[in-house]
Amino acid sequence: MTHIEKLAALRGLMAEHRIDAYIIPSSDPHISEYLPDHYKCIAWASGFTGSAGTLAVTQDFAGLWTDSRYFVQAEEQLAGSGYRLVKLKVQTAPEYADWLAENLPEGASVAFDGKLASVMFAKGVQDKLLPGGMRINSDVDLLSPLWPDRPALPTATAYLLDETTTGASTADKLQRLREEMKRNRANGHLISSLDDLAWLFNIRGSDVACNPVVLGFALITADTATLFINRKKLTDADKARLTAAGVVLADYKNVEETLGNFPKGKTLLIDPKRTCFTLYHLASRSASIIERTNPTTQFKAVKNPVEIRHMRETMVKDGVALTRFFKWLEETLPNENITEISLAEKLRQFRSTQEGFVGESFDTIAGYRAHGALPHYKATPNSDSQLQPEGLLLVDSGGQYLTGTTDITRVVSLGNITDAERTDYTLVLKAMIEGSTAVFPKGTRGYQVDAITRKPLWDNLRNYGHGTGHGIGFFLNVHEGPHTFNGAAIDVPIETGMITSIEPGLYREGKYGIRIENLVLSIDHRDSLFGTFIAFETMTLCYIDTALIDKSLLDAKHIDWLNDYHSSVFEALSPRMDDGEREWLARKTAAI
């Protein structure tokens, strides 16, 4: 079926079930950002492939609500689908529910599949629609009957990491979790989010592209730890290791039955942001629900010394691969045809030569000229641009290694750069340096670092629509909570041991985009009469293109930081390079 035909069929089922509006979120039963093919419902229904969005369908309107990162992409992908782009004013806000509240009559029926909706999503819909006298059904799956060739759930093998890699055993992590459950007076704790599951059980897999996770749920009590998983994915040796750690293995599909039998009157800790509404609703029939962030989400955000040591080594490996890639690009472009797609594949090849490389941490964003202005651009055969010896190239990429996860963005000049491009580039670099050199009191939140980073751009009446930074997993998801550096007033303090990106940008639609991104580690700075202060240690090791810099726009502190950074890049990477690579890197990291 075409997307128009799918929309017509969906409306037919809605009429049959007397549903006035149907909502399709971008999610799965684990409330994942990146989804297994089985749960890519929005892409199947509308053609939109972005990782954030919500479809809302009535008999006379079908819309995709998404944020500024995807406006251009959505306009292109929705063409001819029957869906219209609705631009979110506030990222992640449930503005689709506001629209439904304004446009549906009292008594209208609104439905969605509670297995694909977080507790927060469902409550947001209820809060907007119930006061208007509308009826809500959270147990309606209208897509499965229309999707005969729907991909099956993944069956790839999973594996356990050794304590020498993770820095803590599963038994130790379970004990720490139970202590936190006790403090919260929780008799049980349901974990649905795949990265929390992976961290707790030191398990990794490949059920989701670019994210080394495995589908599963966990139910933890004071004396039991049940992992709901397809047991065929594990070797007998790994099953034995989990059993020795006090873990009971159960079938993936049995989680609903087990929750339905949870002892009445007992308390169950559930994360409303990371748990689907179906499981929450099922558990609430017998258990008293405690709603709070998964303790493991906070635990894994603060890296232990072993993880930090591994991450530092991983940054060296990644830096070597990136240096060889950019050297190849500079030397090859004048003589060969290079496109955005072939460029991304070449970068993957360079990373794959590094020990412990598993795969990419996300699909490489290789945006040449105007494509660089699309923050989440991914080249397709139809959009694949051939590079020319002029203009700006933005490359946002990352690697998954057994010893860590990387995420880096660089913009390089391919020739004939304009004064406007040079100015914008320098201001973005200045912003990145301001964020990287921030010193702040303990208890500071991410939105404060976000503002510090943006100031050089704000001073020049420039801004960007995405956040300044996100947490990074340890050989886990490239986007990790609970902390984030953006304008939202998220009440999560920055703690030492957290690894976060700092990635300001500037985008001229139809012309070019600029983003410069490093990963930073939060470290203790010093104590004063006014309390304890925290600073950042830059972990990423890759040169920053100085050919694009207008030095007159930088203060002495920015120049000193850049020169010191380049000195550390050369010192860390050059011992692993041959003479030609060292000479090339020396030129790229020369002091300005």
From TrEMBL:
<keyword id="KW-0378">Hydrolase</keyword>
<dbReference type="InterPro" id="IPR033740">
    <property type="entry name" value="Pept_M24B"/>
</dbReference>
<dbReference type="Pfam" id="PF16189">
    <property type="entry name" value="Creatinase_N_2"/>
</dbReference>
<dbReference type="Pfam" id="PF00557">
    <property type="entry name" value="Peptidase_M24"/>
</dbReference>
<feature type="domain" description="Creatinase N-terminal">
    <location>
        <begin position="7"/>
        <end position="129"/>
    </location>
</feature>
<feature type="domain" description="Peptidase M24">
    <location>
        <begin position="310"/>
        <end position="521"/>
    </location>
</feature>
<protein>
    <submittedName>
        <fullName>Aminopeptidase P family protein</fullName>
        <ecNumber>3.4.11.-</ecNumber>
    </submittedName>
</protein>
<dbReference type="InterPro" id="IPR029149">
    <property type="entry name" value="Creatin/AminoP/Spt16_N"/>
</dbReference>
<dbReference type="Pfam" id="PF01321">
    <property type="entry name" value="Creatinase_N"/>
</dbReference>
<keyword id="KW-0645">Protease</keyword>
<dbReference type="GO" id="GO:0004177">
    <property type="term" value="F:aminopeptidase activity"/>
</dbReference>
<feature type="domain" description="Peptidase M24 C-terminal">
    <location>
        <begin position="533"/>
        <end position="592"/>
    </location>
</feature>
<dbReference type="InterPro" id="IPR000994">
    <property type="entry name" value="Pept_M24"/>
</dbReference>
<dbReference type="InterPro" id="IPR000587">
    <property type="entry name" value="Creatinase_N"/>
</dbReference>
<comment type="similarity">
    <text>Belongs to the peptidase M24B family.</text>
</comment>
<keyword id="KW-0479">Metal-binding</keyword>
<dbReference type="InterPro" id="IPR036005">
    <property type="entry name" value="Creatinase/aminopeptidase-like"/>
</dbReference>
<dbReference type="InterPro" id="IPR032416">
    <property type="entry name" value="Peptidase_M24_C"/>
</dbReference>
<dbReference type="Pfam" id="PF16188">
    <property type="entry name" value="Peptidase_M24_C"/>
</dbReference>
<dbReference type="InterPro" id="IPR050422">
    <property type="entry name" value="X-Pro_aminopeptidase_P"/>
</dbReference>
<keyword id="KW-0031">Aminopeptidase</keyword>
